[in-house]
Design goal:
By secondary structure, the chain is an alpha+beta fold. It has one domain. The radius of gyration is 17 Å and the shape is extended.
Length: 116
Amino acid sequence: MLQRYLSDRADSVLVNIADWEASDERVRAGLLDAALSRGRFSRVDAWAASASEFTRSLLQARGFRPPEPDTVRLRSDGLLVGQLGEGPRAEPWLLGSRDVLKIENWDLRMLYSMAG
């Protein structure tokens, strides 16, 4: 699923990969290739911090590059999760059965975000 902001104040050429599910890696690559070739977008962004090695390699092979650190700070909202208090954490900080301090336990696709 691709997403573009419609606000007059938004970057009018930016397209985000908001959700990218497939039955296997071959189909995943085909979906990306179809979107890029048919869309002919000027700029496409994708979240890759929690992506698999295959996905990161696929994006890199298609010309995707990590953003400059200063640009991320200027345009991103954030979520800060951390321990308050002194000393090391004795046991995992759990939400249900998931350790909230491990990024692989978060689903960070744009589709599920509250950004408007």
